[in-house]
Amino acid sequence: MRFTESARRRAAIAALGLVAVLTLGACSSEPTVSASGPDSGGQMSGETGDKAAAPAKLTYEPAAGAQDVAPGQPIKVTVADGTLDQVVLTNPDGKQVAGQPSEDKKSWSTTEQLGYGKAYTWSGKATGTDGKPVQIGGAFTTVKPRKQVGANINVFDGQTYGIAMPITLTFPSKVTDKASVEKALSVETTPKTEGSWAWVHDDTSVHWRPKAYWQPGTTVKFNAKIYGVKVGDGVYGKEDRSASFTIGRSQIVKGNTQTHRLLVIRDGQQIADYPASYGLDADPGRVTPSGTHVVMSKHDTYSMTNERYNYENIVVPSAVRFSTNGEFIHGYGPSIWAQGKKNISHGCVNLAPANAKAYMDGALVGDPVEIEGSTQKINRARDYSDWTYDWAEWSKLSALAS
């Protein structure tokens, strides 16, 4: 069948009409744009416009009316659907507690410590997105502790330590609320250093160590904000502790009880190889234990006493302690004949007095002392054993480990 010219024109017009109808039908659910165009600020007909105005909603930490609040916990007010115009927290004497609003005026937090066993009162005003004011109010009371305890730290401002130095915080008794204490601790390092806290030594002490030995030259800032923090049942922290220190050069001592040698490796280079006598192998109570120890202190002279082995006040020169169990690297002239040949000491590492002084003069607290070859290992229950744990073991000892 063939179309005439006029028929073709009528068919084309009808087809165009069908396309137009189909196009409008396909887009009929979409919003239309105002006549002013998409750049004029006009809204699409399907939009809802600005969110409806609402009154300010306040949240208090701790909740209004709370009692036995730990002063070390966050103390703050936050607002939703509005801003904070003025916030005042007043102590029982009518004095305002120092605080700081956030930049967006959505929250306000205290910047000074609260007291124990005191009532605090909120006041002030917030404004909602509806433009109406909402009063800030309410009160809470802090806990009156059964006991306050301090804690000792092993690092001090301005000091330089070795590459194995852990940070330790030690309490006078067991800590039962480990998570609260650990949340109050922080370690800031330059360069950034991966590390973790771990609870050791009968739950009285928490230690932080890096995943691997410190990078030489690292700067460290440690803060223990434990004032007002719950330590145990009715027991709270007495005061904060802090320290800033530096990690020095790399030095690793390597001792082998079978070769009877003590090597000193500094910045990757061996600088000394001393003949040594270690603890007597035949007596488990005298063996120098294998494992990675840490230098704890240095003494020009030290008086040695061990009632079990019947000696008292034996003074030795140039003593470097590397164990809480009483092992030292020190000078001892009477054992020079055995040094480099056999083990006869009561657990210490005996060197010739001149060698012991040379070693001590270059040692830093925190240097690792790696002993191998003996029949006994470091006793984790009583010794400075941080580096006897691999990283997976160590990180699991954190109270915050998932």
From TrEMBL:
Recorded metabolic or biological pathway in which this protein acts: Cell wall biogenesis; peptidoglycan biosynthesis
Signal peptide: 1-26
Domain of life: Bacteria
Database matches in Pfam families: Big_10, YkuD
Keywords: Acyltransferase, Cell shape, Cell wall biogenesis/degradation, Peptidoglycan synthesis, Signal, Transferase
Region (Disordered) residue spans: 29-52
PROSITE patterns assigned to the protein according to its UniProt record, in alphabetical order: LD_TPASE, PROKAR_LIPOPROTEIN
CDD domains: LDT_IgD_like_2, YkuD_like
Active site (UniProt): H330 (proton donor/acceptor), C348 (nucleophile)
Domain L,D-TPase catalytic as annotated: residue spans: 251-372
The protein's name in its UniProt record: Transpeptidase
Taxonomic classification: Bacteria, Bacillati, Actinomycetota, Actinomycetes, Pseudonocardiales
